[in-house]
């Protein structure tokens, strides 16, 4: 209980451990805050094979992700608190309709305190299945009244964060002739590539899945690929590094090796531990807080709850540029790293 109530991951209102033996479902639903409204956050489907205890790793991931959603939703101006769910296991091996429906029943049992959506390992078609058991489901297919793939506006929001970073560093909100390295070109990353190329940037990519890299290179031969994240962060002439896969990308090993002037990416929980933001600032690397710039997806699925209008949602996501600029200004005025400035702004809104 100490982990939930007294650590830096704590303060959560509710944590639900879910198990359905018949379907094989094991899941964690974490609600960090409902101060601004029902908790809204996606469902991650991941095996956590690299950890000694997958279930413990899943709980900690859900706690961190839920807390991040509270801050993300607050800064996005949404009337939603923060929550997140994790289904434990390899989605390619255990995902079934029965498992997703069992999960939907657990979400429904919360009575609307938690609204779910897609995340790593879950897709629009999965949310359509979950919705058969639970009406508090977003990220559904257009044919079922949903907004479709939320990665579209997630990538657009990250691009707006990059524009804000460019304005802060170089006085001009464009990535033209800048070199951007993207680690992870899956659902969000490949859309981000297209925004950057349209803006005139040079793009370097890497991904653990060769097929994801191949898809980008086939569509955009001008993009360059490197083998692995270590090679990417050491790329000569890199202006912005964009972590777009799993969390913890900025740690005691990667930060000293970074050649980029800024970090701005779609991955959640990029800072491996408290203090990394100070290490970045100490090296003169501008950090655009992940939960600010990657909020386009949650803006999209939140709009779905009111009858989805893409133009309206995109207009809201475009404001990520203004929010990021305001955070950089607040950070400079207060003499703190941008993530501390972002935290203060989010906490002020939740407190009100």
Overview of the molecule:
The chain is α/β, with parallel strands linked by helices. The protein has two domains: 2-66 and 81-144, 3-Layer(aba) Sandwich (Rossmann fold), CATH 3.40.50.10860; 151-295 and 321-351, 3-Layer(aba) Sandwich (Rossmann fold), CATH 3.40.50.720. Helix content is 45%, strand content 15%. α10 links the parallel β10 (240-243) and β11. α6 runs parallel beside α14 (310-318). 52% of the residues are buried. Homodimer. It comes from Streptomyces iconiensis.
Structural classification: alpha/beta
CATH topology of the largest domain: Rossmann fold
* Number of separate domains: 2
Would you count the extended β strands for me?
Answer: 12
The main pleated sheet reads as: 6 strands, mixed
- Rounded mean pLDDT score: 94
Spans where pLDDT lies below 50 across 5 or more residues: 1-7
CATH architectural group of the largest domain: 3-Layer(aba) Sandwich
Q: What is Rg?
A: 19 Å
Top-tier CATH class of the largest domain: Alpha Beta
Strand content: 5-15%
Note the total helix count: 16
Tell me the distance between the termini: 28 Å
Order of helices and strands: HEEEEHEHHEHHEHEHEHEHEHEHHHHH
Shape verdict:
globular
Helix content: 40-55%
Organism: Streptomyces iconiensis
Catalytic activity: L-valine + NAD(+) + H2O = 3-methyl-2-oxobutanoate + NH4(+) + NADH + H(+)
Protein name: Valine dehydrogenase
Keywords: Branched-chain amino acid catabolism, NAD, Oxidoreductase
């Amino acid at each position: 209980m100490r982990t939930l109530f007294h650590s830096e991951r704590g303060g959560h209102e509710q944590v639900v451990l879910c198990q359905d033996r018949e379907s094989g479902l094991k899941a964690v639903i974490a609600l960090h805050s409902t101060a601004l409204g029902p908790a809204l956050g996606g469902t991650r489907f991941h095996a956590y094979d690299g950890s000694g205890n997958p279930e413990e790793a899943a709980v900690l991931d859900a706690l961190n992700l839920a807390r991040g959603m509270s801050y993300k939703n607050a800064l996005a101006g949404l009337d939603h608190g923060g929550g997140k769910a994790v289904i434990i296991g390899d989605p390619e091996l255990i995902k079934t309709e029965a498992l997703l429906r069992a999960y939907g029943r657990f979400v429904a049992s919360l009575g609307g305190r938690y609204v779910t959506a897609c995340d790593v390992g879950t897709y629009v078609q999965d949310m359509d299945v979950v919705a058969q058991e639970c009406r508090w489901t977003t990220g559904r297919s257009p044919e079922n009244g949903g907004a479709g793939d939320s990665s579209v506006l997630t990538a657009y929001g990250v691009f707006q964060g990059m524009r804000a970073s460019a304005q802060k560093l170089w006085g001009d909100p464009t990535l033209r002739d800048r070199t951007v390295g993207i680690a992870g070109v899956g659902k969000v990353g490949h859309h981000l590539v297209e925004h950057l190329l349209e803006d005139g940037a040079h793009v370097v990519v890497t991904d653990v899945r060769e097929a994801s890299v191949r898809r980008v290179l086939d569509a955009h031969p001008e993009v360059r690929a490197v083998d692995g994240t270590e090679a990417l962060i050491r790329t000569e002439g890199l202006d912005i590094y964009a972590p777009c896969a799993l969390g913890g990308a900025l740690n005691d090993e990667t930060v000293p090796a970074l050649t980029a002037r800024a970090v701005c990416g779609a991955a959640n929980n990029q800072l491996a531990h408290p203090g990394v933001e100070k290490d970045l600032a100490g090296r003169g690397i501008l950090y655009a807080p992940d939960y600010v710039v990657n909020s386009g997806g949650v803006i999209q699925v939140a709009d779905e709850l009111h009858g989805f209008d893409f133009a309206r949602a995109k207009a809201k996501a475009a404001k990520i540029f203004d929010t990021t600029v305001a955070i950089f200004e607040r950070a400079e005025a207060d003499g703190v790293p941008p993530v501390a400035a972002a935290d203060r702004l989010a906490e002020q809104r939740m407190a009100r």
